[in-house]
Specification:
CATH superfamily of the largest domain: Glycosidases
Family: Belongs to the glycosyl hydrolase 13 family.
Largest sheet: 8 strands, parallel
CATH architecture of the largest domain: Alpha-Beta Barrel
InterPro entries: GH (IPR017853), GH13_cat_dom (IPR006047), Glyco_hydro_13_lg-like_dom (IPR004185), O16G_dom_2 (IPR045857)
Pfam family, one: Alpha-amylase
CATH class of the largest domain: Alpha Beta
Keywords: Glycosidase, Hydrolase
Organism: Anaerostipes hadrus
Distance between the termini: 36 Å
Radius of gyration: 26 Å
Number of strands: 31
Length: about 650
Amino acid sequence: MIHNASVEKYRTPVGAVTCGSEMMIRLYDVGQEVNKAEIIMYSESFHREYEMKRKKDCMEEHIKMTSEAGVVWYYFRIWEHGKCYFYGARHGKTQGEGMIVDDNPDSFQITVYEENFDTPRWMSKGIMYQIFPDRFCQGNKENMKRGKAYHESMGRTVYLHDDWEEQPVFGPLPGKEFYDPCDYFGGDIEGIISKLDDLKRLGISCIYLNPIGEAASNHRYNTSDYKKVDPFLGNNEDFKRLCQLAKERRIHVILDGVYSHTGDDSVYFNKKGNYEEPGAYQGEDSKYYDWYDFNEDGTYKSWWGFETLPEVNELNEKFVDYIITGEDSVIKHWLKLGASGFRLDVADELPDEFIFRLRSELKKKFKNYALIGEVWEDVTTKESYGTKRKYALGKGLDSAMNYPLKVNVTDYLLGNQSAKDMKTFLISQQCNYPKPLYYALMNLLSSHDIPRIRTTLATGMNENLPSREQQAEYVITSKMDQKGKALTRLAMAVQFFVPGMPCIYYGDEYGMHGLMDPFNRGAFFENDKETYQEVLRLTSLRNREKVLQTGYALYMAPTENVLAILRFISEKKDVFGEASENKAILLLVNPTMKKEEINLDLNKVKEGVNENALQALLKNLSNAVIKTNVAPIDYKVIEL
């Protein structure tokens, strides 16, 4: 008995489907002694049982999907000679081939999303570059002076680095009890403007900026004023000019939206009394009082218990008006200045309704504005605060930060999982994610919240890391660095071949190192120009070949160690049905120390792909069998 949820023979169509879609589900190799087979299908809102019909070589059932977006689960109940048993997904898997069990089967996943869901095509076709503003480039030294004077006038601690190549402060400053991210290198908006031509040469089409609003820290996630550029970075006119000049180079600018909390030292809360207008901390007379939840003793709800980050009630109408719907709301304020969208900080801690309303307002202004969510897990099955999240199903996010890709790529390259495991993960995302979102995913390998990819691969420390003090003393030897360099090259090849929008964290194109915050937020420098040339080859290939932007993706593991990714367009149409030239490009990745011989027959590959499109491709190939080899710790790109 066999069912493979990732193959069209067993489930037509494979992958996520739109509301109200029709689907055929089949079981093959069902013996004649089976009296009855049923599909048990359920979601949050229903539980249904379908008796399957016996055909010549299988049992099948035609099912119409629910009209409500959500995740639907199913398994099979089998009756044989009066005995009941089950066929379900393999443990920990939601796609692929299943298995027979006596009881408690795991379920296969069907993601059902809104019929009219679409995402900006520039995201599928683009390459993103993430910038931590204080650490990228200094363009105007006067901003550093102005920022220091302004923040010190507020009674805030400010530490200025004298040397651009100094290590970020990681512990308490002299005379202080606790670490405070109050050290500044002087990166600013003028500095970003000065690098626009460099970014364009690198092939970048979108810049994502960590927060730029006024705040009492270098990371600025403790917002003081949502509508004002921090004086260390310049002013609102500087940002407007950045967006204008970026647009001239066909580069979008995305801002960080931090809407689950504010800083306590802010216009809105004003705990330290730095602002003339009464903040919520001053009492009920403040127009911001209703944003926050106060207890009778004067204490208040704060983000993860940090009193410096009072949490807001995101569904308070006054807050929604200020951030989203008002005539000069925060999002409209930045859109007018030239922003192309927002990345939502801790999106899974924002109510779905807040995200839905933000998307609605954003798309009213322009359908090609982007909304990206910070989510660290599978975005379709994420649960938070006891709620199954629906922000990835068409009414919320266009895209999400693809942290699962980073985890699995590094595990694969470090030898912690096989090529088959990596293939299984890639097929799972491909099948579970709505197609518009899947092709817009923010595919990252590093960020301000995780170690840089070269450091991860050099040290082998993928998830478990020592203390900050130990990280500060950690030495990456030349041998380790060379390993990190070689494996990063492979990681980026995978990153640029999977659907979505590859994101380069500033400095990764030059092989910068950095463990956790704040070491991953070091000042930009050109560490390794060979790595830059490697990245440039990948960005050029990605920008040149439409097949790598909106082509079909086929994932394979021709050997235990080698991962294969085939991107293709056949019948002169891409995955969105848009006209395009037929093309097929194969990537082979070998992370081991030995040469790998490859014998890959594309006729035998079925999982996770549109069968008609694949068959059309195979008809036009002179040879569907690829025989080649891949050198140790190397990748190979083959045009078929």
